[in-house]
Amino acid sequence: RIQILFEEMSARLRRSFTSDLLKLGVAEKNIQDIMDIHERFPDLSPYECQRKYRIEENEKVLRSLNMGEILSTLKPPKRNKIISVKPAKRVKVEPTLPTRRSSRIAGLGVKVYCPEKDNIEINPATPTYRIVKPKIPPPYSHEINSKEAESILEAIKHDVKPPPNSVAPLISQLRKATLKESGVVKVCQARISAMDIHQGNEIIVASGSKWGDMGVCRYPVNGEDRVVAHVKYHQDIVSCIKFREKKIFSSSYDGYLKNFDPEVKKETTVFKNTDSWLRYFDFTSAHTYVVGDNLGQVMQGDLRCDSSKFTQYSSNGLYKNSLWSVDSNIHHPNYFLVGGASGVVVMFDVRNNKEHVTQYNRSRTINSAFFDGVTGRKILVTCMDDTLTTLAVKDMSEMHSESVTKHDTYTGRWLTKLRATWLPGSSEYFTVGSLRKYPRTMTMYNASEGRQVLSISDEDLMMSVQSIVAVHSATSSIIGANASGYNYIFTQD
After folding, report:
1. What does the alpha-carbon distance between residue 97 and residue 100 come to, in Å, rounded to a whole number?
2. Is 277 left (phi over 0), alpha (psi -120 to 50) or beta?
3. Model confidence over 261-281: pLDDT tens digits?
4. Can you tell me whether residue 270 is helix, strand or coil?
5. For residue 302, what are the contacts with CB-CB under 8 A and spacing of at least 6?
6. DSSP state string for 316-369
7. Which SS3 state, helix, strand or coil, does residue 50 take?
8. What residues contact 112, with CB distance under 8 A and at least 6 apart?
9. With 467 labelled, which of 45, 74, 241, 360 sits at a CA distance of 20 to 30 A?
C-alpha cells in the first residue's frame, strides 16, 4: 500500500513538472530528455532543467564541429608588454616672496601699525570698474578737418525753426517717410548712447558713443553729398548731447561737461566733477545748467563761472543711486525734473536748493521724465516697469497720473535705454523706440488715449533696435540710433 501511494505521488509530481515545462514553451519531443535530467538532478526547477538541457545540446553541436581541434591550431594572441613608468620626482618650489605666517600659531602678539610713526603711505581704495579705458581703433580721426567743419557750421548757423502749430500735417508726412540706402549712416564706432538733432532747415544729427567719440552728420539736401565729422574729447561713455547756440554740448562718464564749437574746432570744459559719472544735463536759462550723476547728486552750474563751481540740490534722501534724466521747463524756467534708479520723479525749484517741490513714485527705474514743450503742464515718464506714463502738473506743485501706456522697455545690458520724447510742437503725441523683433520699428503714441498711431519700419534696411528716436519737424523726418553706431534717417521722397 505504501508503494502504491508513492507511485501515485510520483505520477502527480511528474504531471505537474510536465505542465510547467509546457508553460515554458518546451516542445513535447524534448520533454522526456528534460525529465531524465530531472531524475538525475531532482533539486533543479523546471526552468533550470530546461537550461541544462540547452547547454548539453550546445556542447554536442560543438563536439560535432570539432571546434576543439580548430582552436588548438590557432596561435595564442600576443599580449602587449606592460612598461612600468616611474613617477617623476617632485621638485620642491621655493617661494619667491615671503609667505604669510600665522602670528597666533607662532605665539606672537598683535602688531598695531601707526601710519605717522611707521611712515606707512595709505592710498584710498579706488573702484576697479572702468579703470582701463577702451582704445579707439584707427579708422576715424580725432581731428575734424576744415571742410567738414565749414559744412556743419554753415548748417548750424541757421536759426532753430519753431515747432509747427499743428502736428496733424507733420504726422501725415511722417507716415510717408521712407528709408533709403543713403539714410543709413555710420556715425560712431560703437553703441550710440546719446543723440540730438538740430531743428533747423537741414538735418544735422550729433551722436555720441560708449567709447567717448562723437559723430556729427549733415544729411544730404538738394543733391549734396552727406558729411560725417568725427571728434573725440571724452574718455568714457557720452551720456547726453544737446545743440545750443550753434554749439554742441555733451556730458560723459568721465565727469566732464564740454561744448564743441565747429567754428574754432575746439572744445571747452563747462563743468568738471571727476568723482562721479555725469548721466544727464539740461539748461535752465541762457547761462545756467543742471547736471545729474550716478551718485544721485543734482548740481547747478553757470557757463560764466569756473567749471568746478556748482550748487548742489538736496533730495532729502530720495536719490542715492544713478540719475538717468534731467529736464527743465521752458515755459516755467525755475522748475526742472530729475528721474533715476530710485524710481522717483522729483521736481525742483532752482530758487530753493534745500528741498524739492513734489515727487511721483514708481516701482522701477525711471529712464526719463520730460516736460512737454507746448504748455509745460504735462510730463512724459519712461519707466523700466514697461510703462510710458503721462503726468499732469497742477499749479507747478502737484503731479498725478493722467494715462499709462504699456510698452516693453527692458533693454538689458547691451542696448541704450529707451526714452520716450514728445513730438515737436505737441503735448499729445510722443515717439519711442521699440523692442519688437520683427519687423524692427519706431513707434508713435497718443498720450491721452494710450494707443499707437504710427509705426515706422523698413524690413530690408533697418534690422536692429532703435533705442533713441527723434523727429526733425522742418523736413518731416524721423531719425533712429542703434547699438552699432548707425543713424537711420527716414525722409520724404
Report:
1. 9
2. beta
3. 877 777 889 998 888 899 999
4. strand
5. 287, 288, 289, 309
6. TTS--S-EEEEEE-SSSTTEEEEEETTSEEEEEETTB-SS-SEEEE-SS-EEEE
7. helix
8. none
9. 360
Per mean pLDDT, which range of 33-47, 182-196, 361-375, 430-444 is the poorest? Answer: 33-47
**pTM to 2 decimal places:** 0.69
Q: To which residue does cell 605665539 refer?
A: 107
Q: Which residues contact residue 224 at a Cβ distance below 8 angstroms, ignoring those fewer than 6 apart?
A: none
Please report, for residues 258, 259, 302, 468, the alpha-carbon distance to residue 307 in angstroms, rounded to integers and kept in the order given: 10, 12, 8, 29
**Element housing 5 (H / E):** helix 2-23
Q: Which three cell numbers stand for residue 253?
A: 562718464
Q: Which three cell numbers stand for residue 169?
A: 500735417
Phi (first) and psi of residue 478, to 5 degrees: -130, 135
Q: Tens digits of per-residue pLDDT, 70-79? A: 766 766 666 6
Rounded CA separation 430/471 (Å): 10
Per-residue cell: 286 = 541762457
* Cβ(249)–Cβ(270) below 8 Å: yes
Output the furthest CA–CA distance in the chain (Å, rounded): 137
**Phi, psi angles (nearest 5°) of residue 99:** -80, 155
Nearest to 339 by CA among 273, 285, 375, 385: 385
Pairing of strands 323-328, 378-383: unpaired
Q: Which positions ≥6 away from 7 have C-beta within 8 Å?
A: none
Residue 216, SS3?
strand
